[in-house]
Amino acid sequence: MTAQTGAERLDAVSGAVAQVVEELRAMLFARDLTPGSPVRQEALAARLGVSRAPVREALRVLASEGVLDHVRNVGYRVKVLTAAEFEQTYLMRRVLEAEVLRRLPPFPTPALQRLSAVNEQIAEASARGDLTAMARLNSDFHFRMFTASGLDLVVAELRRVWQLSDGYRAYLLHDPISQKRIVDEHAEMVEALRVRDHERLVSLMDHHRDGTRPQLEAVFTPPPA
Amino acid sequence: MTAQTGAERLDAVSGAVAQVVEELRAMLFARDLTPGSPVRQEALAARLGVSRAPVREALRVLASEGVLDHVRNVGYRVKVLTAAEFEQTYLMRRVLEAEVLRRLPPFPTPALQRLSAVNEQIAEASARGDLTAMARLNSDFHFRMFTASGLDLVVAELRRVWQLSDGYRAYLLHDPISQKRIVDEHAEMVEALRVRDHERLVSLMDHHRDGTRPQLEAVFTPPPA
DNA sequence: CCGAGCGAGATTGGATGCAATCTGACTCAC
DNA sequence: GTGAGTCAGATTGCATCCAATCTCGCTCGG
Predict the structure, then answer these.
(1) Inter-CA distances, A5 with A41, A130, B29, Å
(2) Are B62 and B89 in the same domain?
(3) Nucleotide C15: nearest residue by CA–C1'?
(4) Where in the sequence is the domain holding A202, given as residue range(s)?
(5) What is the domain-level CATH number for residue A118?
(6) pLDDT tens digit string along A65-115?
(7) Bridge partners, B78 (sequence order)
(8) Structural domain contains residue B1
(9) Per its UniProt record, what Gene3D superfamilies does this chain match (chains A, B) (predicted)?
(10) Which of the nucleotides in strand D have any atom less than 7 Å away from a protein CB atom?
């Protein structure tokens, strides 16, 4: 049951703070907020129909995660990553994901099928040109694997690391050729999971991750003023 | 209750939220809060002379870091780590610290001396039996090295991981024999730094980290509920 | 004696109000 | 023309206020 593009009405979330956090993450995926964008408390509060109090808590959380920058008496804005910082997210992902993947228990067939289904959805989103859905589904694909490790704290850290670059993720998927490559490599990973070849899975993932680097450099090279 | 005499210009920390966060971290180091302790908003606010608003933001931050647990309409409490979770903090530290240490640039002599000085202070705190100071200085020693790597995002993640076990750190230092071992091993690390033997530094650190495991098991074994 | 039901007090979640601070445009002296 | 000074509007930081919810001891029927 995957409701495509239904992210605006998540009243299912218990608290207002969680709602605001989710909305902000969605806005990042959708490039509604891009690196450098200011985040106004009053505007966000109005948009979600809550007061500034929960908004402030949510912003503080995102800032502590490093997703937002905060300057006292000035406000929050989406953090702009330097190339060096982006490199560090790759470094952390490489070492933490390897540990997680090596510890994955055998995947039951239904779980493998669900994973493949997510990858299919990525292909469909790609066909529609829906970058936002792709970004979300791509995270979903990866974290379904990670979560299966049972290493909840490590997965939580990985989530934080991924979120640091959420604002950039759509740019990495921009190119149709990359999109196909991503889907194909995901399929290879599912196969490695099926035959329980963990080392192959790790090296596939390393290759997969490195494959997004060229797109990244394109993001960081054009600094006109 | 309103102290609007305007005398509060001495705030060392810029904001009330940061002040609350720091106080909470200090309370954890000092075992003023121990795993499982509830954290009452009103009490904390009164203790620091601020209102509940900044306290709530601070608590939300600590909860998002995993230091506190939060249950809606019930409150915050210091997170109790399971043995499995503790194991994960070791795992993350092992892989992230190795990456950081391998990238350390040469330490100038004054920096090495400062590092040694911190280790001396640990020894002095040990002699005084001041566990709180030991815990703080021990963090200081390690993060002085890490920070020198320049990998600020990785160091930030390491800080988060360390903070997860801050509430337990004093227990790990409880035993006088461990205290001496820690100081000695720190000295060995300084020496490895001096001669720029990174691989030796990494393996010393691995050994150092593993050395605290026995104390840990002692913490987790006696659950006579 | 014991468990379900109940209510007062404690506590949190969120809204609102206001002072402090920043920003950006405007003025004016040089 | 240019740069320092300043002033209004925008925005944040924090305090305060109220409603919603939970906790826990008490009562009461079985």
Answers:
(1) 25, 9, 45
(2) no
(3) A51
(4) 83-220
(5) 1.20.120.530
(6) 999 999 999 999 999 999 999 999 999 999 999 999 999 999 999 999 999
(7) B68
(8) no
(9) GntR ligand-binding domain-like (1.20.120.530), Winged helix-like DNA-binding domain superfamily/Winged helix DNA-binding domain (1.10.10.10)
(10) 11-17, 20-23
Res. A220: pLDDT tops 80 = no
Token code pair at residue A137: 């589904």
Check residue A217 and give its pLDDT.
Answer: 73
Chain A within 8 Å of B17 (Cβ-Cβ)?
yes
Cα separation, A181 vs A171, in Å, equals 15
Nearest Cα residue in chain B from A57:
B57
Q: What positions of strand C are covered by protein, i.e. any atom < 7 Å from a CB?
A: 11-17, 20-23
Based on the fold, state whether residues B63 and B89 are members of the same structural domain.
no
Rounded percentage of chain B residues whose pLDDT exceeds 70: 92
Looking across all nucleic acid strands, the nucleotide with the smallest C1' to CA distance from residue A52 is: C15
pLDDT at residue B218, rounded to an integer: 73
Question: Cβ contact (<8 Å) for A95 and B95?
Answer: yes
* Burial call B129-152: b when 16+ CB within 10 Å, e when fewer: eebbbbbbbbbebbeebbebbebe
A17 touches strand C (CB under 7 A): yes
- The answer, yes or no, to whether residue B32 has pLDDT greater than 60, is yes
Answer whether A99 sits within 8 Å of B89, measured CB to CB: no
How many beta carbons lie within 10 A of that of residue A82, not counting itself?
12
Q: Which of B40, B62, B78 is the last residue of a domain?
A: B78
Q: Which of B60, B66, B156 sits opposite A153 (nearest CB)?
A: B66
Q: Which residue has the tokens 């149709």?
A: A176
Q: Where residue B10 falls among pLDDT bands split at 50, 70, 90?
A: very low
Instruction: List pLDDT tens digits, range A9-57.
Output: 233 467 899 999 999 999 999 999 999 999 999 999 999 999 999 999 9
Neighbours of B216 (CB within 10 A): 18
User: Looking at per-residue confidence, does B222 or A127 come out higher?
Assistant: A127
User: What's the CA gap between A147 and A153, in Å, rounded?
Assistant: 10
